[in-house]
Structures are given as structure tokens and as C-alpha cells.
Amino acid sequence: MTAPFSVEGLNASYAGRPALTDVTWAASPGLTAILGPNGAGKSTLLKAALGLIPSDSGRALFFGGSLDQARSRVAYLPQRASVDWDFPASALDVVAMARLPRMRWWGSVPRAERDVAHEALDSVGLGEFADRQIGGLSGGQQQRVFLARALAQQADLFLMDEPLAAVDAVTEQTILAVLHGLVREGKTVLMVHHDLSLITAHFDHVLILAGHVVAAGQVAEAFTDASIAAAFGGLPGRA
Q1: CB 127 within 8 A of CB 92
Q2: pTM of the model
Q3: Beta 30-35 vs 188-192: how paired, if at all?
Q4: How many CB atoms lie within 10 A of CB 50?
Q5: Mind listing the pLDDT tens digit of every residue in the chain (239 residues)?
């Protein structure tokens, strides 16, 4: 079975320093947490794989081929801090941007595409905020809007960079419920994550990084005290 996402001998640097060293790994369908301490290369892995930053060597494969071959099947959710929230757009406008590859480059957004965007907002509990300016929403609501944009792509592989960072409890539970729904539909979700207390209850697989692969596999096998200590130099807040 072809992996939905894999990297082979990936090396990448950040600010002149090695961030990833010879990372080889293949994702399995389901919900995977990408774990590691600050500077472990978690976000770098996603960005280098997507070509958002250059890699030094190695390659990333999406469903066995290049990103260009699978682009319509891949959705990316960046860190919230990297987004310009002052951009003058409504929540619906932001979500509808995911449908641009399916539209003409001129004219208004077709009703069918707006319906998809509305449905995605409804799925994250923000249907009533469709016309609200994105900058006027709370941090948790903004995160849900960007999750809705990823959902509107109707992708098969979702790469998410810290979607649960600094969100309220309601948003956290909403996002986790949506992600579990995606997995039930046969989708693959890879998620940079930092809260070790959620791993056992919510994730199928883990990839633990410390600039290199420390451990990877099913949670029961790879999420161990030994692998956490090897990556973090201790057992930070594990429950």
C-alpha cells in the first residue's frame, strides 16, 4: 500500500543550522501527532515537504508521487501566528479561497463553491459567523475558520501545524472531533502537536523528532517513556 505521505533522507536547515538530519519516514492512514521539543524540526518537516522552505537534500512523496501530481489531494493548515489577521475578508471569503483552483479566475464565486464553504464553516460550528470579518473573531474562532478552509479543499491528506496551540477548550474539542471525523472517512491527518497528555486518547500514530527520527509508529509502541526521554531529555508533563 502506497503511503499517503513519506520522506526519504530529508535534510533541511533553518537560519544556517541543521534542523532535520536524514529523516526517512512513511505516514500511515489515521491521525498522527508529530512531537518533539522546540527546535526539533516539526514545522520544518511540513514546510520542507511542501516546498515552503528549501530542503538541503532528500525528497517528499505524496501518495507515491510529487506534490505537483497530488496537490489537489493535499491541504495545509499553517500556524495561526503566521497569518495576517488584518486582511479585510470575511470568514466565508477565507474558506472560499480553498475553492479557487476549481473556479474561473474572473467573476464572482459560484454558488456551488460558496455552498461548500458554508458547509465547511458549519462543520466547525461557525456557520453563523460567515459574514464576520476574520480579524474580529477570537483566536479560537480564527483557528476554526482556517480548519474550515482546509476542509473545503476536500483533500485526502491534511498537514496541520499546531492547530491546537493556544485555543480554548471548546475549540480544542471541536477540532479534535472534526479530525476524528476525517479519519473515519479514510483521510490522513498529520499534526504538529505539543500536548503529550492528549496523545493516548486521541491519536493513532506518533512521529517523535529531535532533529532526527527518535521513534515512530503506533502510539502503543512508539509513545513510550524511553522515546519521550530521548527526545525531550526527560518526561515533560506526560499523563
Answers
A1: no
A2: 0.89
A3: parallel
A4: 16
A5: 799 999 999 999 987 889 999 999 999 999 999 999 998 999 999 999 999 999 999 999 999 999 999 998 999 998 876 666 677 788 898 898 887 655 444 445 667 778 888 999 999 999 999 999 888 888 888 889 989 999 998 999 999 999 998 888 888 999 999 999 999 999 999 999 999 999 999 999 999 999 999 999 999 999 999 999 999 986 554 43
Q: Which three cell numbers stand for residue 199?
A: 496523545
Contact between 234 and 227 under an 8 Å Cβ cutoff? The reply is no
Q: How far apart are the first and last CA of the chain?
A: 34
Q: In what order do the strands lie in the sheet with 17-26?
A: 17-26, 5-14, 57-62
Residue whose grid cell is 475549540: 171
Question: Facing residues of 75 across strands?
Answer: 158
Residue type, 32: T
| Closest CA relative to residue 42, chosen from 193, 179, 150, 189 | 193
